[in-house]
Amino acid sequence: MTFPEGFLWGGATAANQIEGAYNEGGKGLSIQDVMPKGITETPTEGPTPENLKQVAIDFYHRYEEDIALFADMGFKVFRFSIAWSRIFPHGDEEAPNAEGLAYYSRILDELDKYGIEPLVTISHYETPLHLARKYNGWTNRDLIGFYERYCRTLFEYFGSRVKYWLTFNEINSVLHEPFLSGGIPAPKEQLTKQDLYQAIHHELVASARATRLAHELMPDAQVGCMILALPTYPLSPDPADVVAAMYTAHDSYAFGDIHCRGEYPGYLLRYFRDNGIDLDITVQDREDLKNTVDFVSFSYYMSICETADPAKQVKGPGNLMGGVPNPTLQASEWGWQIDPQGLRVVLNDYWERWQKPLFIVENGVGAKDELVEADGVKTVNDDYRIAYLNDHLVQAREAVQDGVQLMGYTAWGCIDLVSASTAQMSKRYGFIYVDRNDDGTGSLVRYPKKSFGWYKEIIATNGASLKISSTPHG
Questions:
Q1: pTM attached to this predicted model
Q2: Which of 3.40.47.10, 3.40.50.280, 3.20.20.80, 3.40.50.720 is the CATH number of 8-460?
Q3: Is 362 an annotated catalytic residue?
């Protein structure tokens, strides 16, 4: 009971959550520089000292040390993002920033030194701030051209060294967080459905153009979309609840359907008709969308329920993307419901729907870790994290036995980083503890946690050392 030969084990991060150095190396400001509290508060006018992402975990200066630790765990792949505003500081320049290109070249050199495959996210919640404020983010069609120029630059500079690319991180999250995901400054309650879906259309066209360009410039490269997976169960057997769950599921399916099938699905076209949405879709747009992805990647943290009963439509504290809590599940400290079997459901569902190779590129549990010392060695005894990841990986292995074609698994926040949703350091995901606190204090020294050795063994045995959980069928 192991994973397929050549399975890509590793970890995942995002530039804005690890790099720091927000104003070094010619970097421009991104939307993250005005989000000191993540998605929990209104963006600020400019950078503020309380924004932990200004320093983050200082990966910008410490990448050699961190990549060496990843190599010690046995990583086969490392997912990281390139900060758009490091390459094009404002986003609309004609020429790229040479210092930014040189920095990522050094990252690739270091990964190559250890034989670690890079998995690059082109845009991970890091729209240049200038594009958000001058152009109104992805509501403006001009961003398609700016993004295409950015992609061409990356492909031409790094194409011979990067095989796996992701166009946008959790592209469907724009439905719930338009500023974070789409660089759209308008408050959510003021953003019309017309403008939101026009922005989504522009992102989808940009993603398809990037896919076509990648295939032209890098014939051996593989391009994937990246979706926030959110399996949705009916709260009860009532058919009305089943239909309510179907509607919510469509929100995520639509993005995968378009990326994998190259056209808008009928249920989304009906939604447009029912809501008076009339998108500007050109003939060229329709041709562009036919450039479908090579694989589907996704994040998986939790599942949700839906109901048609208004009295029961009470969102839980962790249901950032909607839905109601599942009464049969436990939750993390931040209210995210823990559902390992939901991962198997997603894998089977996506494989049967799209028949494209799948890649789990984010999965993990945020927790308040405690650094302890024993025999002069500092570590974190994170058995809760080991249990969470073990149970999810067992279900991923079950899906492989079901016939799902699974490329790899990159645990989210393989080293502690600044949370995207709350901009906290105390919400930790990593196998490596970083000594930094929510108030910005700390030495930034790295300490392997107990889970570090556990994951190292999982990789070394290709999953054979996983412990079978008590859930049915694995």
A1: 0.97
A2: 3.20.20.80
A3: yes
